[in-house]
Amino acid sequence: NKSSIFIGWKDEDLAEVNLHQEESSQHNNPHTQRIKLSHSTSQRGYFKAPRLSIFSRYPIGLIISWSYAALDIQSIVFPEPILQKNADNGIGKDDQAEQGKDIANGSTDFSGIREYQTGDSPKQIHWGTYAKTGELHTKSFIDYASNDLWLEWSNLKLQGVEPKLSHLSARVLECHQLQLIYGLKLPTTTLQPNNGEAHKIACLTALALYGLDSKQRN
User: Fold this and answer.
1) Strands, E, within 84-215: which ranges?
2) Which of 109, 126, 144 is the last residue of a domain?
3) Is residue 38 included in any domain, yes or no?
4) In whole angstroms, what is the distance from residue 184 CA to residue 189 CA?
5) Which listed site, 42, 109, 185, 198, has its alpha carbon 20 to 30 Å from 103?
6) Dist CA 133 CA 159 (whole Å)
7) How many CB atoms within 10 Å of residue 166?
8) Residue 118 lies in a domain
């Protein structure tokens, strides 16, 4: 189209701006037009946008005018989320989730009195029982383990780095969709359990940058 400007990257879809339509609309309602561009990539990690091509045959269609625009744009490409069957035990919970653990010097809920053991804190001794029986007993409390979910690299039964990253990415999106509180454990990074959009992005970013050296990150 000789009345258009084309903007985009080589071998990618181009965005078209029709100058005749723009001139007509500018008289009635001046505005800035926004265009959407996309660039495909097959590698995770940091992606720096290449030079942008801008060209047109306007106004007579016989000659092509063109230029390049260098963009200072960098983004992070997440691993492709691919959920593998039987790759792990699913979304797992802590072994002691929602189970009380008897701790002599705990501080959560009082659970009873037991016989004194060497090393028990004097603050935990039940002096009322001692006054009645002459024997030392210790107050015990119940502390509860958290019910957090963990996505762990070490639990995966997959071979290869990229399949593991893709599977964990799918798990992150699954947990986020279900509004669960979850953490991520990689060989080099641990993200404590949390939820929400910021936590999802942090987990996907850790997966995207896993194993990349400083040159590949910049």
Assistant:
1) 92-93, 100-103, 109-115, 137-144, 149-152, 182-185, 190-194
2) 144
3) yes
4) 8
5) 185
6) 63
7) 22
8) yes
> Of 19-28, 85-94, 98-107, 138-147, which range is least confident?
98-107
* 12 within a domain of the structure (yes/no): yes
- Averaged pLDDT for residues 138-154: 74
Do 122 and 62 belong together in one domain? no
Please state, in angstroms and rounded to a whole number, the distance separating the CA atoms of residues 179 and 22.
45
Q: Report the candidate in 139, 143, 140, 138 with the shortest Cα–Cα distance to residue 101.
A: 143
Q: What angle do CA 30, 34, 35 make, to 5 degrees?
A: 140
Q: Domain end: 92, 111, 144, which one?
A: 144
Within this chain, do residues 153 and 169 fall inside the same structural domain, yes or no? yes
Contacting residues for 32 by C-beta, under 8 A, at least 6 apart: none
Q: What is the DSSP letter of 105?
A: T
Q: For residue 166, what are the domain limits?
A: 147-217
**List of E strands, 132-210:** 137-144, 149-152, 182-185, 190-194
Tens of pLDDT, residues 55-110: 787 766 667 777 878 878 888 999 999 988 877 754 555 544 444 444 444 455 56
Element (H, E) at 4: strand 4-8
Name the domain count of the chain.
3
Query: Are 127 and 105 in a shared domain?
Result: yes
Do residues 151 and 140 both lie within one domain? Answer: no
- Model confidence pTM above 0.70: no
Kindly state the DSSP code that residue 98 receives in the 8-state scheme: T
